[in-house]
Here is the input.
Amino acid sequence: MYKAFLLKYAEIGLKGKNRNVFENALRDQVQFTLARLGEYHVVREQGRIFVECPDGFDYDETVDALKTVFGVWGICPVVVIESTDWEEITTGTGRYIEQFYEDKNFTFKVEAKRASKQYPITSPEICARMGEYLLHRFPEMKVDVHNPKVRVHVEVRTKTYVYSQIIPGPGGMPVGTGGKAMLLLSGGIDSPVAGYMIAKRGVAIEATYFHAPPYTSERAKQKVVDLARIISAYTGPIRLHVVNFTDIQLYIYETCPHEELTIIMRRYMMRIAEHFAKKDGCLGLITGESIGQVASQTMQSLNATNAVCELPVFRPVIGFDKQEIVAVAEKIGTFETSIEPFEDCCTIFVAKHPVTKPVLSAIEKSEKLLAERMDELVRTAVETTEVIWISTNG
Ligand code: ATP
Ligand code: MG
Here is the structure.
């Protein structure tokens, strides 16, 4: 029944002079996302984006893909009537209502637009005449101009477009319009959600994962790759850096007080992630930290970790409870993968009684004990980092 989609966007409409940039970015992102499904024709037009679908396209697949494009507020499946003849417009619209709404017991309002003033029927007239036609054809339907259940949109251009459904999109801003940031991506529940949330604001994402073989298995790494692939459906392609962290962890383990292990480890993760971030032009770091969730996420611990970073660290789930994070993870499809039981490196080297209120000067003092070999270990870790290109478009 449908041959096209009209995409509505909310927030980018507010962008004044930059509006063009945002609209083009959204069009490009829609084009990119649909490219793997077929040859869709995507055009920008008067505050919205039209997607014309190829013959034989799959409706559900197309809607699911559009639901991953940040910046899309609503997805309207459109019936295209290949004519501007009034008779055909009314029968076409009637046929659409007939097929789509099994139960016709609802209130409605017609909203009309004509692209050209040359079209002989004005917009208010289109509304009135179409309303009359529908009331006559479907007596159960009732008009309510203030608070209708269904808004029947009729747009007359070179062809006529009819739609009444709005499927919610993900909202947010088109990816790439807000620069780029480096996500510290573990195999847990929180960090994929954090990456999704920042990407939703238009920020492109790279990622760094700290791998500690043989303490963490190949499966743990595969889980992170899988998570990156799931979020890349929203964020676009991700350069994933897999850092071999084993020697650094062992050295900290052998050298520093065990209750400080996690904090010191986290500080080295931040340093190395920031190194790649700066190298690749990222303007911030992203973590899945949430205040009080574990010992390394108290205010004192967050301060101690933060102290090594020059770039801003974005922690979008900082004020979320676990259930709230899980709700997002379920919505975006990462939860099932995140709960697969493969240890990430932190869970192996955790002390029985980690400090919950680390004092920065004490941590810095402990790190001095690492002076002899740490620079070299960090250099080696950076040099041997594996970079994996992750994209849903192959
Ligand atoms: P998550 O569910 O994201 O793993 P978590 O609750 O397990 O988080 P921590 O282990 O304290 O919390 O990690 C806090 C944050 O540090 C993570 O959200 C992630 O951003 C980063 N992080 C932790 N471990 C790793 C790792 N092995 N590789 C990359 N980043 C990591
Ligand atoms: Mg974790």
